Description:
The protein has 14 helices and twelve strands. By secondary structure, it is an alpha/beta fold. The chain folds into two domains: about 220 residues, TIM Barrel (Alpha-Beta Barrel), CATH 3.20.20.105; about 80 residues, no CATH class. Helix 7 links the parallel strand 6 and strand 7. Helix 6 crosses helix 7, helix 10 packs parallel to helix 14 and helix 11 runs antiparallel to helix 14.
Amino acid sequence: MPVGTQATVKALTPENLESIGAQIILGNTYHLYLRPGHELIQSLGGLHKFMNWHHPILTDSGGFQVFSLNKLSKVTEEGVNFKSHIDGSSHFISPEKSMEIQKALGADIIMAFDEPTPYPSDLSATQKSLQLTTRWAKRCKDSLESDGQSLFGIVQGGMHPNLRKESAEQIMALNFPGYAIGGLSVGEETHLMNEMTELTASLLPEQKPRYLMGVGTPENLLTCSAMGVDMFDCVMPTRNARNGYLFVTGGKINIKNSQFQNDPDPIDSNCFCYTCKNYSRAYLRHLIMAGEILAMHLLTLHNSTFYQTWMNAIRKAIEEDIPFSFSWQDTAV
């Protein structure tokens, strides 16, 4: 899922996203609550109409941002008091408030409000956090009144296998239509993330979507798809593009490097995206070195195309029961 934090996937239009085969995008509850406000978005027809995206949208609960952007946030049983990172104003989000916001936004898939477990975190603190997450998940489900939205529960448990199992059992007992694996890709080593992902995915029902939050690299997506994960989101393709790092067949390049100053070739000669069909590495390097806005658009379009094509290749391997092989021709469009 391309990440559209503030009702936009940075540097791309909805038509761009459709052209590369994106099926669903992600919006952020915390940011949209603070600016422009969920009530305004609701009054203008909901998030789909507001941003002119006529396909599914998933909104996260806002929990991760409440904790990661607010060092002075205060957690109670009722919810979280925090200050806006924009203007310092005071706010309070509870499980019920998160559901109210996400209902107003009108997303198709919404997430239960949880307390993300920081890394590292000891056994006692992690268990306390996951139990609070479970209680909040029940309150989210009890307060949700919309039949048109699918509420996913989030499994926590940190890097402790026994607590991952405990959290999964508690969240599954609430019988959500889908489940997210939270608390990973927060600074831990890759092997540890993989171990916790494989364990957690194995505990969740195969017939319901399994969503790994905030992950990751193309290699992460391939590895975790093989573990049974169905859904991913990550800012990596768009953020990397804005900094000049581009995904290509076999790896990644930094377009800012001087070796590309006179390079007449496209980013990737096999890529079918608009950028690669029309522009040279030399031109793209010039744009980003000059600070031109067009660079953000063209580079983001390429990286986003790469990610959609990569996932199409994974789907093809699963559907046809064949070994994974990346090809720029593995596209749905």
